[in-house]
């Protein structure tokens, strides 16, 4: 009986020793292969504007374009909208010009390829103003209606609204303005002809 107990004790000690000397299994660490995001450098407004030169113009009535644009005032905004029920910025411009017999492309970047550039001091009703609002390129367009104001379809305003072109938000994002429509039969006055007519009528 004593030998049996001794044998069991020896077996227990031997088993414990083997278990104690077994090496610990190290946990495997997963290696992340996520690529670091590289932030693109912002492009200057001047550089974006330089991409757009002069393009085709149309003969028409700039004042009629201004009046047509006001008919859409307060139309709701919807990205991709191109109906009288909802419009986005370029859809609004396309619809206004189409109502006056002028066909412009659907998106603002393509619309920016038409007309010739004018400065803010040279703006006339019917001119187009282009802005960089959410991408590194032309991304917003409005129609100048005079008195330092433009009408445009804007997500910020919830639809077609009138804004000052000197509003800090738009002033900081302004790229360039273009004259797409020239008034029909618009000619500069001849000063010599005016003098002759005045003297003749005396």
Automatic annotation (TrEMBL):
Which BP terms from GO are recorded? proteolysis
In this protein, which residues make up the domain named NlpC/P60? 58-181
Please report which protein family the annotation says this sequence is part of. Belongs to the peptidase C40 family.
Q: Select a single GO molecular function from the record's annotations and give it.
A: cysteine-type peptidase activity
UniProt-listed PANTHER family:
MUREIN DD-ENDOPEPTIDASE MEPH-RELATED
Domain of life, per lineage: Bacteria
Organism of origin? Thermocrinis ruber
Its taxonomic path starts at: Bacteria, Pseudomonadati, Aquificota, Aquificia, Aquificales
Keyword Signal assigned to the entry: answer is: yes
Report the InterPro entries cross-referenced here.
NLP_P60_dom, Papain-like_cys_pep_sf, Peptidase_C40
For this UniProt record, the keywords arranged alphabetically read as follows: Hydrolase, Protease, Signal, Thiol protease
Query: Which Gene3D superfamilies does the UniProt entry name for this protein?
Result: endopeptidase domain like (from Nostoc punctiforme) (3.90.1720.10)
Q: Which residues form the signal peptide?
A: 1-20
Q: Does the keyword Signal apply?
A: yes
Identify this protein by name: NlpC/P60 family protein
């Amino acid at each position: 009986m004593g030998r049996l107990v001794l044998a069991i004790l020896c077996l227990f000690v031997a088993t414990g020793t083997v278990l104690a000397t077994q090496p610990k299994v190290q946990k495997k660490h997963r290696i992340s292969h996520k690529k670091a995001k590289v932030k693109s450098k912002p492009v200057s407004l001047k550089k974006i504007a330089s991409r757009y030169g002069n393009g085709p113009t149309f003969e028409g009535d700039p004042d009629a374009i201004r009046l047509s644009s006001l008919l859409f005032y307060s139309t709701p905004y919807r990205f991709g909208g191109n109906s009288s029920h909802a419009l986005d910025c370029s859809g609004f411009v396309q619809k206004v010009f189409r109502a006056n017999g002028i066909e412009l492309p659907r998106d603002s970047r393509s619309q920016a390829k038409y007309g010739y550039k004018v400065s803010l001091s040279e703006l006339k009703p019917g001119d187009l103003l282009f802005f960089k609002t959410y991408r590194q390129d032309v991304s917003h367009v409005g129609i100048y209606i005079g008195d330092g104001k433009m009408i445009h379809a804007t997500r910020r305003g919830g639809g077609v609204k009138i804004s000052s072109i000197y509003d800090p938000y738009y002033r900081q994002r302004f790229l360039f303005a273009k004259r797409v429509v020239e008034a029909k039969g618009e000619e500069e006055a001849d000063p010599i002809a005016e003098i002759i007519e005045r003297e003749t009528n005396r």
